[in-house]
Amino acid sequence: xxxxxxxxxxxxxxxxxxxxxxxxxxxxxxxxxxxxxxxxxxxxxxxxxxxxxxxxxxxxxxxxxxxxxxxxxxxxxxxxxxxxxxxxxxxxxxxxxxxxxxxxxxxxxxxxxxxxxxxxxxxxxxxxxxxxxxxxxxxxxxxxx
Length: 145
Fold this sequence. Notes:
4_helix_cytokine-like_core
């Protein structure tokens, strides 16, 4: 059972793996984190993505009477990475004004379904972030200039 959610009831009533994926509609991480793009723009977009996912996870947890421990762990990891990026890129300290990404409709079932889809999007975006940050920290992006 290792690696499985400790709270299977979170996605009770539907198979989360069969649902569509919802990506944040207005960040451009996949585009600006290509090798030819400036590293600072990539980091800024990664921070925007993390801000969005932090925001939606926190809003879901705050709206649920018994906050789900598994989501708190993801939220904590997201905040930690946001903090690391802030320390390594202090010139990005001014937050941009970003549009809201409304994912909650109010119905508990619909909200759990939206959470599933958003977490699937976060999983895909986390892979992109991991690869981009690995590339940037390797220093290879400096060799292109």
